[in-house]
Specification:
- It is built from 9 helices and no strands.
- The chain is about 75% helix and about 0% strand.
- The two termini are about 35 Å apart.
- The chain has one domain.
- Keywords: Endoplasmic reticulum, Fatty acid biosynthesis, Fatty acid metabolism, Lipid biosynthesis, Lipid metabolism, Lyase, Membrane, Transmembrane, Transmembrane helix.
- It comes from Talaromyces islandicus.
Length: about 250
Amino acid sequence: MPAKKATTQPIAGKKPASGLTRIYLFLYNLVSLGLWASCTLRTALLIPQHLEQHGSLSAIFAQVFPLLALTQSLAALEIVHSLVGLVRAPVVTTAMQVASRFLVVWGVMFAFHEGSDYVPQGAGIMGAAARDTQYGDYWFLGCMFAWGITECIRYGFFAMQLAGVGVPGFWLWLRYNTFFVLYPVGISSECALMYLGLEPAARYVSEYYQWFLIAMLGVYVPGSYVLYTHMMAQRRKVMRGKSRVE
């Protein structure tokens, strides 16, 4: 699922973050921003290159996924941040949202790409460099851009807050408006990849894993609606406060 709405501000009602905590959170957000920016820009630059040279987008996966896996895995620290009280985000909500990304990255992309140890040659749902672009390749790119743009905005937002430099108005607008487009793109891409993973899950892993993915798809639909409406409510609250200040 798309990323959390708050992960770097001190818990409400508690003392402001100490100097060391602010420095750590600033560096965490800055590193995360750099990694997501690298993932997104690399993907964007590879698309015209591969279309021109190969007429296919299937080989992009192998060139981008290792960095994506590292970048997304780093988000596990956000559960720790919430657990120890460095940020205000609820532990359960944060854990569920991070876990949903982990499921797509490790449980589908890693498990069922061409060349994976879990599927035989020719059975991968994405990343088959010697073949034409598959549906899975398009959905992978959908995840890359929806996640990448969202996370660059989010981590940049928090990095500026923690640095005390103030968040520009246009960045605040991006933070609370781009989800209207990026959220549906991200959710659709994640669900599509899980759907494509159902057949190889049953055939090469276990029918239980297939049913697990089906259950997750069932959770995604109502869960995404709840989160989307929550984000709209947050947007109204922030934009209303901004208007009062102006």
